[in-house]
Every structure is written in structure tokens, then in C-alpha cells.
Write a structure and sequence with these properties.
Blueprint lengths: L11 E4 L3 E4 L3 E2 L15 H13 L4 E3 L8 H10 L7 E6 L1 E2 L7 E2 L3 H15 L4 E6 L8 H13 L3 E7 L3 H8 L6 E5 L8 H9 L3 E5 L9 H10 L3 H12 L12 H9 L7 H10 L1
Parallel strand pairs: 3-4, 4-5, 5-8, 8-9, 9-10, 10-11
Antiparallel strand pairs: 1-2, 6-7
Helix pairs in contact: 1-2, 1-9, 3-4, 7-8, 7-10
Length: about 280
């Protein structure tokens, strides 16, 4: 590993063509309570984790109005506002929370407008740099949901539009309506069902944000061997594997612990060999 602990070791990526960020971000889902519901057990520690991420060069934070709900966005503002000029905050709308552990899509244009305006208030922003449709709603035509985001963008409330939990067909449908800056799908060394989407994002200069990025199979011998060789944790190895997978990859590992933030950022300096990458990929 390089001696300096910094997200800058991951290099940079352009989001939407005009927002350059470190290619290792921070996912703010875990700065909430159990089941992603309510306040975290230790709000001061959660705020410290957010501040530590920024101190270590993280310039991209991903959140959503449904995390808490509302809790994650509020904590981000409490911990970091006024924001550094280079910090890009991405949030999402389109999922509602009837209760702990419950997630239901709501892609109605009126809901998305309300969600976006609520995020603007909580984050204390005049414009959200990247606003993502959290999940297509099977009860609402995708063109209506994305169309609502296009309207918000035209009003200056959104800078760039992203889309999450989508198929390639849904992505293409959205692209008929507007430029899409990012795709956020589940992807890790165990679940590579979005493999072709990663390649597509690289080909078309979109950022790919993998959620659940540090999940890995317990019996992946490649991960275990690389962890021993680099004197690293399995979580650090799978973050390094993601960074090596594609230039479009923008991992967003999340935690509510400042120490775990440091552990995740340290992964940016791990350089896996071609043989190690192949062993991890083949062992998933």
C-alpha cells in the first residue's frame, strides 16, 4: 500500500461530464438506525464518519431520502455544511418507507417533485448535483417518472440525472428522454448480474455506482489469498477489485464508523495483479 491514506489514490472520474470526483465515494445509507430506519445509535459518531470521509479526500457522497427516511440527508448537512467546493452529493427519490425494513416504489411525478424538494431542504442545497430515480415503479410508466426529473432539471433543481436498479432496456428508455449521467445497480464480486451494464457505462462515459459493493462469497479463495498477500481485509480487497474492474466504476462503500471509513479508503491504494483479479473473478 502507499503510505498516504487518501481516496485520491483511486484516481478520478467525471460524473455527467463536468463533475470530477475521486473514484472512491461514500455511501451514506449506514449512518441511520437498524434496518436503515430512524436515527443512528450514535449520531455524533455518524457525523464523525462523514467528516472523516471528506478529510480523507472523498468528494462523492451518495444518499437517498428513503434512508431513515430523511435521516441520512439531514446528518450530511449537519456534519458537512457549508460544503467544500469539490464535494458532490448525490441523492435519490422514488422509494417510500412504510416501516422498518420496508421499501415500496413510488414513481409518480408528484411524489418525485415532493421528494426532490424535500432533499434540497434537508441537504441545504439550491441544486442537487446528481439526482437518481431510486427504482422504476411498475405502476407508473418510466417516461412519466423520468419526465418529472427532466422538469426539475429544467427548473435548475437538478444538475444531472441518474437511474438506479434498472435493466438495459429501461436505461435506453430513459436515455430517449434525457442524458443519463450514472447507473446504480447491485454489483459485487459475488453478484455480477449487472456485468454488461458496467461495460455499457464505460462505453458511454456514464458512472456506474455499485450498491452492496463489499459483499463477497466467504469461500472466494482469490479474495482470501489476496488479503493475505496485501495484509489487508477481505472488504478492502473487494473494493480494490471493483476499482480494477472498470474505469466507469465508482464504488460507494458505506459505514457509520470513522475507523471503517479509514479502512475503506485504504483500499484505494491496493494494486491487485492481473492474476489476483482473475482469481477473485473466477472464484465468485
Amino acid at each position: 500500500m502507499r503510505s498516504e491514506l487518501s481516496a485520491a489514490n483511486a484516481g478520478t472520474i467525471d460524473v455527467g461530464g463536468d463533475l470530477t470526483v475521486a473514484r472512491l465515494g461514500f455511501g451514506a445509507m449506514r449512518v441511520t438506525g437498524q434496518g436503515i430506519w430512524g436515527d443512528p445509535p450514535d449520531p455524533d459518531q455518524a457525523r464523525a464518519a462523514l467528516r472523516r470521509a471528506v478529510e480523507l479526500g472523498v468528494t462523492f457522497i451518495d444518499t437517498a431520502d428513503s434512508y431513515g427516511p430523511d435521516v441520512s440527508e439531514s446528518l450530511i448537512a449537519e456534519a458537512l455544511h457549508p460544503y467544500p467546493e469539490n464535494l458532490v452529493i448525490a441523492t435519490k427519490g422514488g422509494l417510500v418507507r412504510p416501516g422498518p425494513g420496508q421499501w415500496e416504489p413510488d414513481g409518480r411525478p408528484e411524489h418525485l417533485r415532493e421528494a426532490c424538494e424535500g432533499s434540497l431542504r434537508r441537504l441545504r442545497l439550491e441544486q442537487i448535483p446528481l439526482y437518481q430515480l431510486h427504482r422504476p415503479d411498475p405502476k407508473v410508466p418510466l417516461e412519466e417518472s423520468v419526465g418529472a426529473l427532466v422538469e426539475l432539471k429544467s427548473e435548475g433543481k437538478i444538475r444531472h440525472i441518474g437511474i438506479s436498479n434498472v435493466t438495459e432496456h429501461q436505461l435506453r428508455e430513459a436515455q430517449h428522454l434525457t442524458a443519463i449521467a450514472s447507473v446504480q445497480n447491485r454489483y459485487n464480486c459475488t453478484d455480477r448480474s449487472s456485468e454488461s451494464m458496467v461495460d455499457l457505462c464505460e462505453q458511454e462515459s456514464m458512472a456506474f455506482l455499485p450498491w452492496a459493493p463489499i459483499q463477497q462469497s466467504d469461500d472466494n479463495a482469490g479474495v482470501a489469498a489476496a488479503a493475505r498477500r496485501h495484509e489487508a481485509t477481505p472488504h478492502q480487497i473487494v473494493i480494490a477489485w471493483l476499482l480494477a474492474r472498470s474505469r466507469a466504476m465508482l464504488p460507494i462503500p458505506g459505514t457509520g464508523s470513522p475507523q471503517h471509513v479509514e479502512d475503506n479508503v485504504a483500499a484505494a491504494a491496493i494494486e491487485l495483479s492481473v492474476e489476483e483479479i482473475e482469481a477473485i473473478t473466477g472464484g465468485a
